[in-house]
Amino acid sequence: MTILLTIIRIFLSLWWLWLPVFLVAVFIEFWVKYLKAAAVKKINWLLLEVRIPRNIEKTPKGMEQIFSGLHGALTKIKFLDKYWKGKVQEWFSFEIAGIDGAVYFFIRTPEQFRNLVEAQIHAQYPDAEILEVLDYAGPLDKKTPSKTFDIGGTELVFDKDDFYPIRTYIAFEEKETERRVDPMAAFLEILAKLKPGENIFIQYLIAPTADKEWIAKGQEFINKMLGKKTPVKENWLDRLMGPVDEFIVNLVKAILIYPIWGEPKKEESRASLGNLSPGERDIIEAIENKISKIAFKISIRFAYIARSDIFNRANVSAVTGAFKQFNTVNLNAFKGDGKQGTSADQPFKKRREYLKKAKFIDRYIKRKFGKKEKVFILNTEELATIYHYPIIVVEAPTMRRVEAKKAEPPVSLPIG
User: Fold this and answer.
1) Taking the model in full, what pTM does it have?
2) To 10 degrees, the CA torsion angle through 54, 325, 322, 57?
3) Cα(180)–Cα(271) distance, integer angstroms
4) Are 205 and 91 in contact (CB under 8 A)?
5) Please, what is the average pLDDT of the chain?
6) What whole-number distance in Å separates Cα of residue 187 and Cα of residue 371?
7) How would you label 393-415 residue by residue, b for 16+ Cβ within 10 Å and e otherwise?
């Protein structure tokens, strides 16, 4: 205890040394947040409704191509851009809304990327209609939460590290029977059965990323499973100090024994895949597939909003259950983040729930990304699995679709 008190006294006596550094670091942190908030306010957002034709035979592969194209919105943020201009990476919000039993598909995009979004969608779905509409989420804060309307919902997070993939649309294809099982069917079935006065909103915020850290962790995990040493990048100081350290050790030893100079370290031999169990091979192949594709930072949330007299919490459980179809025991899984949801425990349960619901609906309306540690990574294949336009096998009579295919006028039509 005496030693600890002595250390504390010395630390406090040196306040003039560490306090300025601490205050500068705090100032920079708040300065960057201020600049980013100002930059986000300047973004001009548009909400687009996408209506698709009734007979879609394309698999989610088409949606994967759309997300690959949208990755072109990636912006390289330099030092001055971040610390002087507050520049941020723009993002998109892909949304599915069940409103009084009707199903809508929306995309919220910065105005500057409207042409990019429309071009990518029309490239894969030429007959789709894309309309600019008013934001359906705008009025939500005025009626939720209240005595008339109640809300339930949560934000989703990963159960494991980002390099573990979820179950993707490829696993839903039954190749032997040439059947397709569309994972979107579970969501559309829930949304199509909502009563008047009930609404379910599912929101996928996506921002293109060039972050390599999660890839490096995945490769390190693979190397560990294969018994292969992960190469460590050495700088010039490490390369210089290695022989120096060995020289000093041998100089001390030379008094008693003849010095022995070591051979250059050889990389450990790679284990054969044949020595791994089938489950381990599947994990390695799945991780390698995920880290090989371009990726997005993701934040997912969903809200169930209904009149208080018909509010049914089972609908919240139903949406949570629909996301579980993408979970696997040996790879990754979605789970609800209780801290960012709408439920609270004692004490002051009602008051705490009211505040959490108000904050939750504010994040939904403003399309705010979750906290940094709650944002996770999905590649284009995973993203296309959880958000795509349903294929022909899905029957959702209340889904907004293109009612009639538009045709070009005949070339012989006289021009008056």
Assistant:
1) 0.81
2) 0
3) 37
4) yes
5) 83
6) 26
7) ebebebbbbeeeeeeeeeeeeee
User: Structure tokens of 416?
Assistant: 């008056």
Instruction: Report how far residue 180's alpha carbon sits from residue 202's, in angstroms, rounded to the nearest whole number.
Output: 24
Residue with tokens 């993408």: 326
Give the amino acid at 358.
A
Say if CB 71 and CB 125 are below 8 A apart: no
Instruction: Give the model confidence (pLDDT) of 335-371 as tens digits.
Output: 998 888 888 888 888 888 889 999 999 999 999 987 7
State the pairing for strand pair 198-209/102-110: unpaired
